[in-house]
């Protein structure tokens, strides 16, 4: 028993010592990460305080080499130099009509912003320097015209991710029309020409677009020196607002930067309380309507997403004609392009049925 206890004590001391060494940072790390942080070596199955798998990987099947056709199908990047720009064309006027039908329900009229969705137009490059240092000071306005550096990112993102409910559904001509409209909404000029409704955008014209903030990002990550540019940027901490000397305890006064113009006269006053407001039965919205607003209104607010819009009597009459059991089953299990429960998997089946009932009752 005495030997056993000694063994336990020794083991405990070793573990405690290992823990002490760990907290002291004895891992042979080097401060050579791109962001100025530490990297640590792997040795004997250990990296810092963690073990990693040292088993042989030779028997794993990594699949086959992709064919040239597969690589071509997957390589769909659209780059600033015109690589990947599709054939096609579209006018500002065509883009305006398409935007109203497919995008305005989320991004607002003329890209002015919607509930919970980004503002696409407005703002200036100068606004990016705005700081909230005093009451009434505007925040930076990051939009396509003020913030985005390359127009290739715009048309590429539209093609791959928009419209929200039906990504990759736009034709090449529609891509150019939508891009043309958004450029016009941001007052972007091409060769000094204002983009009026008749202006037609194609890949040759797209290559001429110079967004106002093209050179506003740093460090320069492009080209063979991109990595070293990033490394040099983070090496000088002043580049990203860090001043003074790093410290974790007994920090000198000059090492701590205080707020220059703290906002104190805020109405209502700042609060650290994180509780949600208490739900009351006297509210103007039912629980079902609130759940609809949170989880279903994106697709059912208008018919732009291909779903029956709440309030459209004829559309919902056709839905209800299938029978409420079928309608509820589709809502819970998913149907066509709609995922189960509209993607809100935290809802119970009964809550989904309540939402369906609300949408049906609101469309009579």
Automatic annotation (TrEMBL):
Sorted UniProt keywords: Electron transport, Heme, Iron, Metal-binding, Signal, Transport
Cytochrome c domain residues: 90-186, 283-363
Name of this protein: C-type cytochrome
Keyword Electron transport set for record: yes
Organism field: Candidatus Sulfurimonas baltica
Source domain of life: Bacteria
InterPro entries the record matches: Cyt_c-like_dom (IPR009056), Cyt_c-like_dom_sf (IPR036909), Cyt_CIE (IPR002323), Cytochrome_c-type_DH (IPR051459)
Signal peptide positions on this chain: 1-24
Annotated Pfam families: Cytochrome_CBB3
Alphabetized GO MF terms: electron transfer activity; heme binding; iron ion binding
Keyword check for Transport: yes
